[in-house]
Design brief:
By secondary structure, this protein is α+β, with helices and mostly antiparallel strands. The protein has a single domain, classed as Jelly Rolls (Sandwich), CATH 2.60.120.10. About 40% of the residues lie in helices and about 25% in strands. The strands form two sheets. The protein has a four-stranded antiparallel β-sheet. Strands 2-7-4-5 form a four-stranded antiparallel β-sheet, with no helix packed on it. Strand 4 and strand 5 form a beta hairpin. Helix 1 crosses helix 2 and helix 4 packs across helix 5.
Length: about 140
């Protein structure tokens, strides 16, 4: 079980939270819940309501869309952030391909913290905008 300090240090390594000051990361760390998944267990199902996200502490997961693998993610990756932010159904199924330990953040807690600390929301917007721009550059290069 990770302590709050270990969770803060871990959060600093996550792209989604990288630009957020440490004192705010402590608030985020306090709303996380450590959860374990066995190899083969589904973390989230395509089409389901997205009311939480996971930050992968250890292990690997397969991300599939309509049954086709589109990504493999591992330590320090985040899954479920799109559905938690836009309240749309999950766009992919995520399945553990090894035993996984993850930190779970529930939507209500996440929104409360973003509302209380605009710096957190600004940091997340910057990271997601950067991801979108990088994706657009990749598509344009093809």
């Amino acid at each position: 079980m990770l302590s709050t300090v270990e969770r803060v240090l871990f959060l600093k390594q996550i792209d989604l939270f990288r630009s957020i000051p440490g004192e705010y990361l402590a608030e985020i760390a306090r709303i996380t819940r450590e959860i374990a998944f066995n190899n083969g267990e589904v973390l989230m199902q395509e089409g389901d309501l997205g009311d939480y996200l996971y930050l992968i502490v250890s292990g690997t997961v397969s991300v599939t869309v309509k049954g086709r693998e589109v990504a493999r993610l591992s330590q320090r990756d985040c899954v479920g952030e799109m559905a938690i932010l836009d309240s749309e159904p999950r766009s992919a199924t995520v399945t553990a391909t090894q035993n996984v330990v993850a930190l779970q953040i529930d939507r209500d807690d996440f929104y409360r913290i973003m509302h209380e600390r605009t710096e957190i929301a600004e940091g997340i917007i910057k990271v997601l905008t950067h991801r979108l721009r990088a994706r657009l550059e990749t598509v344009a290069a093809k």
